[in-house]
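Chain A, query sequence.
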Amino acid sequence: MAEKHTILEGKVHVYRRNESPIWHCSTFLKGKNWRVSTKEESLSRAKDWAEDWYFGLKDKGRRGELVGEKTFKDAADQFISEYEVLTDGERNARWVKDHYRRVRTYLVPFFGKMGLSTITAGTVQEYRISRMTPEEGKKLPSRSTLHHETVTLRLVLKTALRHRWVAHLPDISQPYKKSAKVVHRAWFTPEEYKQLYQATRAHAHDARAVSLKAQKGEQAHRVWLAEQLHDKILFLTNTGLRPDEANWLEYRDVEVVKDGPTGQKILEIQVRGKRGVGYCKSTSGAVFPFERMVARNKPKPTDRIFPVDHKKQFNTILDNIGLKLDREGNRRTLYSLRHSYISFRLLEGADIYQIAKNCRTSVEMIEKHYAVHLKNRLDAAAINVRKPRPAPRAKPERSEHIQD
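Chain A, predicted structure.
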């Protein structure tokens, strides 16, 4: 049987379970039973610990810090335990891990001990302010990073709602920026894209020349990096893949086929990205870079097409040719090659719905971020319509009055 003792006039119970050397304590406060282990084997030390613990609870209760409900940490643990199972492979594993990382790194440290009913629009705004407050050694999050954290926060709170731990969801939308300026995403114009691939081609040529002169084995890897970067730029701009989708791509996911309607050779690609498996059909311009990589790498079917991300190399070339920033000051990245693909297709008059399907995005996103800045999307004939001027009215003839 358990051994029990009471202290503080019966307000606190100190007990030890069967065959356990450790003493525990319990009390009833704010309509709830509270229990904790003292981690002490000595009864006298356990009683002293229990007294301190009880008075600490009383102080928290007076300050309103005593939570008698499920906390955000409970909801976060529940979300982590069920999200991956319930989505059942519909979300990319990396996407799922990003949610878990945001929960552990940012959300739980701020909201963890809060009762779920105490999380309001005001506390969410306090979280945003804390993330955007400059501190020494702290990197401020971008707007998109803060948006992703808000998405994860909403998923955790929806988990609590489904389990009836809260009665309703608070308004966690971003205040003050309801009508944010719509800006186009950084891309390369056709002239800038030509300048880019000519620069990467020259970079690969120079690397080969240095390797031949040096006649050293360590130069071979530099040549390979330069050639891979050149082919990656051509590949991404002619497929519209996201950089992370391209990094996950294996040779067995790509097939060279002859397109029936056009009669051209194209690539049919199985894409594994943040929304699971999708499909993409490239332009004919992606075939030659792919075949060149196959001949260069002599790969196995399961080898990655781009085992290196080339970010540093790509940024160095952009800096050298002055194309790192567009005219609005937006930074160009490898993602800009996807934006260029979409813009090029729109400039050529492709159907926007087919582009959206091929790029695994929505028509709304393309209209918002791409089509708004392309002058070729504007039909001057439809804009500069003029109504025909009505023919001038004929003046009525004056009738002559006959005087008798």
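The two ends are 140 Å apart (CA to CA). The chain has 14 helices and seven strands.
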